[in-house]
């Protein structure tokens, strides 16, 4: 389990602190697929970097704590030390990663290269695991001997997922893993990912702006807005019966096949991290906002048995 | 030009991108990007034609040929009864073409220069394509176009693209296109770079403009859901060929092609969950 405990994190800039994640608390539970949703610039990728312990680009935790606890609860690791356990416990599929393969190396040697620090199993066993993982991802055996340019975008993305998964980490963190792909290929890859997760019983966190994708694969869904956690809970609660006006707005703005009823987007755009509105950050765009919203920036509170949401006037709406 | 002429008529369009250059291995032809594509949008069918396809389907090539940014190998294209291209050759000059057909591109952040104020694009379009009165005083036409997309001149004046969100820039792209008072606007993936919460505001704008101003739209997209929502007529393309053409409801209810069914099944909607 990864625990995010009241964390404020972000970047120092000449203009001041950018708190891309602001007073966020959540758990990533063992063996679940957690989806993280929200518009661009709402803190999704920063949250994922915290879960991976990736601080190389100047990301800092200003307060609060992120740590991993093993299923028995006997061992905890602080996120400052996550990097010592990359590949062993955590692996990461960054955004746009299908362009990250070395163009001059065949696939199998690239995969063998990964995770050598943490996982020193003998080469024959690792080769066997590579072969098995690629097969699980519906890639032909000859893929191992090919160069990246000989693969389609979908195949390269599968190789990246294979790279993150073959060393059998406890947690796989994937940032927009299918964004650049066509929907038919996207469906195949998501099915691969879910089957792989069921076979290995590991934990997956997927960041995506696409609520439809989360609806298909996630067990639980977290929705971020302007660095704050707006709503988190079961897939059916958050996406089927959203309670936070922001989630409702996102769900309402998605057109459905077979339904030509007029649909509205959410007017405006997320606030600048340097100029946050007082009180609830969504209030300026919220259709249900009342005077009290400008004076209150609530933390998520339980609403029903399977979600928490951060709004002073929660009300479920059937999607 | 008569009132009953098709808004867009494409006949037997073919396009093969020649391979060549350093690693191309001579001038041999690759697969056809467009393989004998014909389609018609008649005024009685509606004002919005969606062309849906995945990467490599030929949808963007078709859009670029209608905008005459790419030359077809053979075939003809007419807009509002006026031939703009026949057998790969142009039949009207560029100024006449741009008064008939206007583009909206995928990435609004790349459609405008970082160095110019965005209003420059509005004034240039008015001066290049407007009539004598508009050339003398472009402001009324610019104000009218900005009002049609829900913006105002005071919001825009003197500002560069950094002052705008993707959704606002895409509105500006639409306003710029409207200044030319075109019969047809070709929008190539206009909302794929726009946040989901704002997509519908742009899509709704197309719908509203087609109804209020009578301008026709070709909406090029990989996203069947917005195409279904917006369009009066829908075309589905695959590997350079038209595999489906008709009213969206009819295509959804009884797709005639296996590929269409696969495409429909693969869309991650909120209504149903896949069994994995």
Characterization of this structure:
The complex is a heterodimer of chains A (319) and B (276). With 319 residues, chain A is an alpha/beta fold. Chain A is built from eight helices and twelve strands. Chain A has one domain: P-loop containing nucleotide triphosphate hydrolases (Rossmann fold), CATH 3.40.50. The longest helix of chain A is centred in the middle third of the chain and has 18 residues, at 183-200. The mean pLDDT of chain A is 91. With 276 residues, chain B is of the alpha/beta class. Chain B has twelve helices and eleven strands. Chain B has helices at residues 59-66, 94-100, 108-111, 119-129, 132-136, 139-148, 153-156, 166-179, 196-212, 224-230, 248-253, 258-266, and strands spanning 8-18, 29-41, 48-52, 74-79, 82-86, 89-90, 101-104, 184-188, 216-221, 233-238, 241-246. In chain B, a hairpin with a 2-residue loop joins strand 4 (74-79) and strand 5 (82-86). Classes of the chains: A alpha/beta (319), B alpha/beta (276). The interface between A and B is large, with 41 and 35 residues. Chain B: InterPro entries: AAA+_ATPase, ABC_transporter-like_ATP-bd, ABC_transporter-like_CS, P-loop_NTPase. Chain B: It comes from Vineibacter terrae. Chain B: This is ABC transporter ATP-binding protein.
